[in-house]
Amino acid sequence: MALLGGTLAGCSGKSSSANSSDSKKLSIVFYPNESAKDYLASRNELKAKLEKATGKKVDIKTTTDYNVAIEAIASGKAQLAFMGADGYIKARSLNKAVEPLLTESGPDGTFKGASYRSYLMVPEKEAANYKKDGKYSIENVKGKKISFVSASSTSGFAVPTYEIQKEFKLKNKDSFSESGKFFQKVLYGNSHPGSAVNLLKGDVDVAAFDDIDLTPFMKVTSGSYSEPGAKFTVREDAGAPFTDFRGKSVVSISVLPVQNGPLAVNTKTLSEKDRKAIADLFTSDEVANDPKLFAKDGSKQAALFHKKGPKSQLLKVDDNWYKPTHELIGK
pLDDT truncated to tens, each residue of the chain (331 aa)? Predict the structure, then answer.
């Protein structure tokens, strides 16, 4: 797939001198989810806004592996990264120069509700087997075949495994990541759509993925996004990789909130002047009201941010705000 600005196949642990803070070029790296073709227009718009803010040429780096994006921002090969909270914290553990700059607000334009949702999903025909006393339960996931997104995914691994750990009163998550331990089989989709497809294909019994990355492909046809028991159905006009599963449904047996991820920066390779210029523009109404960057909640349009309310915007953020996720993943 030929995507804007090239693809990062791997990274070294040292930053390049070409990427110093006074460079005339910047690069931003994306996770596999936002590297997909569906997000091309939104990535282009983000690139244009970054160039307007800094006056520098911006290269987009797409990836097929979460860890490549994490290493890119930690090493300084990328000066900015569009990532989840878990990945940001892992990058920061590699290099304290990695800091969050911006995150998406809640519907009222503040940090209240600045989150999205993580799910454990099962096939519609099997949903009744995950009920206890009339309510959906994760008690029966032990011994099943499961798909996660990536071990570096917040909503596709860290959050759902934390819930499983609590449910089964386990000391750690060590048994979750490999087949033949807590789960009969463990697969990784490498993206949220990839994890969903593993479930739809019948390769697993349970899958973890989030709502925001599946909006272009699936919609809730029964129940509520925020409650277990919601039925998610593949849209009749869904594109790849869902074309073979149009009209097929899965059901959520667990739903948990996840802190919105940051637009993270490497402060050693992105100057304070550039960071301020980016923050000033990206917290403005110009960006908040840009439909290529903010898609309305529930819309099939693929955009990097989500207009969950009329006041939705980007907010400046620091590491302290991510304390709950630090505690969740133990870093």
Answer: 223 345 554 433 334 434 456 578 999 999 999 999 999 999 999 999 999 999 999 999 999 999 999 999 999 999 999 999 999 999 999 999 999 999 999 999 999 999 999 999 999 999 999 999 999 999 999 999 999 999 999 999 999 999 999 999 999 999 999 999 999 999 999 999 999 999 999 999 999 999 989 988 999 999 999 999 999 999 999 999 999 999 999 999 999 999 999 999 999 999 999 999 999 999 999 999 999 999 987 677 889 999 999 999 999 999 999 999 988 877 6
Q: Residue 146: is it exposed, middle or buried by C-beta count within 10 angstroms (0-12/13-18/19+)?
A: buried
Query: Cα-flanking dihedrals φ and ψ of residue 102, to 5°?
Result: -140, 150
- Other CB atoms closer than 10 Å to residue 195's CB: what's the count? 29
Alpha helices in the chain (DSSP H): 40-54, 66-75, 85-94, 159-167, 192-200, 272-282, 285-288, 323-329
Tokens standing for 109?
A: 């334009």
- CA torsion, points 86, 88, 90, 93, in degrees to nearest 10? -140
User: What is the biggest distance separating any 2 CA atoms in the chain, rounded to whole angstroms?
Assistant: 62
- Cα 116 to its chain centre, rounded Å, is 9
How is residue 155 annotated by DSSP?
I
Q: How far apart are CA 298 and CA 314, in angstroms?
A: 19
Q: Write the DSSP string, 257-279.
A: EEEPPEEEEETTTS-HHHHHHHH
Question: How is residue 249 written in tokens?
Answer: 């449904």
How many whole angstroms separate alpha carbon 149 and alpha carbon 86? 12
Which string of DSSP letters, residue by residue, matches 48-72?
HHHHHHHSSEEEEEB-S-HHHHHHH
